[in-house]
Amino acid sequence: LSDIAVTVGAALNPNPNAVPDGHEPALYVSTTKNISLKHVTSASNTGAGVDAAFLDNCVWNGSACNGTGAVTVTDSAFGFTADRGLIVKSRGAVTLTGVIAAFTGTGIGAAIDNFNGDPAASPVTITSSLFNMSGSTGLSVYSNGLVTLKDVAANSNTGGGALIDNTAGTANVVLLNTNTFNGNLGGNGLTVTTKGTFSAKHLIADANGGSGVSILAGAGGDPAKMGSIFRNGGVEGQTYGREWVEIEAARHRNGE
Asked: Most CB atoms closer than 10 Å: which of 50, 51, 152, 164?
C-alpha cells in the first residue's frame, strides 16, 4: 500500500469479527506474505474499539503463525483514533521508519509482536519515529529477536513511554543516537527486559510518573545478575550487573 489516506468518521473494516482480538481497525491488512506500507495515513477514526491500523501476517491458526513474511512501514501516520494506533502481528522482521503513532483515545500508540511462539528470532528495527500522546503506553515491543531503536521518541503518554521485552530469545536491545522518553504520566519512561545485553547512547528519560529507566538485562536472564534499575524522584537509585548494561550520556530525572 502506498500514498493512501484513511480519514473517516468510523471504521472501514467490513468484517471486524475477523480481527484476531475483536477490535475494529479502520485499516486491516491480513496476509501470510510480506506487508509494506509507505505514505499511508489512518487518522480521525471514531467509534468504540476503533484502531487506526491492524497489520497481521502472522495469521494465527490456534497454535502457530501461518505467515512467514516481514512487515515494513515507512513515512506513515496512525492516530487521532478512539482506541489504538498501530498494531502489528507477525513472525518476520518488523521495520518502522518515519512512523507516527500518536494521539490515541484510550489505547496504546503502537504495539508490535513478532514472536507469536515462533522459535526463529526475527528483528524489530524502529527509526526516526514518534509514539506520543497516547491514551496508554506509547510503544510496546514483544519479540525474540534483536530490538533496535534509533532516534525514537515516546513522550507525554497517559501510561508509560516504551516497553520492550525480548526475553523469548537471547538477542540484545540496542538504542542508537538520541532516544527520548519524557513526561509519561502513568509509568516508566523506558522499561526493558532482555536476556541479552542492553546498550544506549544519549538516552533521555525526564519527568515521568514512574522511574525514568527500568532495565533488566543479562546473559541467560539470571535474576541475580540482570542489568540495572534506575529509580528517581526520591526513590533509591541502584545499579546491578553493569557487565550487561552500557548507557552513555543518559539523563533520568522523574517524579519532581
From this structure: 51
- Look at residue 243 and give its three-state secondary structure: helix
**pLDDT tens-digit map of 111-169:** 999 997 777 899 999 999 999 999 999 999 999 999 999 999 999 999 999 999 999 99
On whether the CB atoms of residues 85 and 104 are closer than 8 A, the answer is yes
Please choose, from the candidates 26, 23, 22, the residue with its C-alpha nearest in 3D space to the C-alpha of residue 10: 26
User: DSSP 3-state assignment of 166?
Assistant: coil
pLDDT at residue 35 greater than cutoff 90: yes
Looking at this protein, which amino acid is placed at residue 2? S
Could you tell me if 89 and 113 are in contact, meaning their C-beta atoms sit under 8 angstroms apart? yes
Mapping DSSP to helix (H, G, I), strand (E, B) and coil, where does residue 220 land? helix
Which one, of 137, 252, 127, 233, lies nearest residue 184 by Cα?
Answer: 137
Q: For the segment 107-124, what is each residue's pLDDT rounded down to a tens digit?
A: 999 999 999 777 789 999
Are the C-beta atoms of residues 33 and 44 closer than 8 Å to each other? no
**Contact by Cβ (8 Å): 101, 80:** no
Among 175, 158, 52, residue whose Cα is nearest residue 111: 52
What cell does 80 get?
487521532
d(CA 99, CA 128): 7
Name the residue among 86, 193, 189, 213 with its Cα closest to residue 144: 193
Decide which of 219 and 65 is more confident. Answer: 65
End-to-end CA distance of the chain: 45
In this structure, are residues 122 and 92 in contact, taking their beta carbons and an 8 Å threshold? yes
- CB of 131 closer than 8 Å to CB of 109: yes
Nearest CA among 240, 252, 254 for reference residue 198: 240
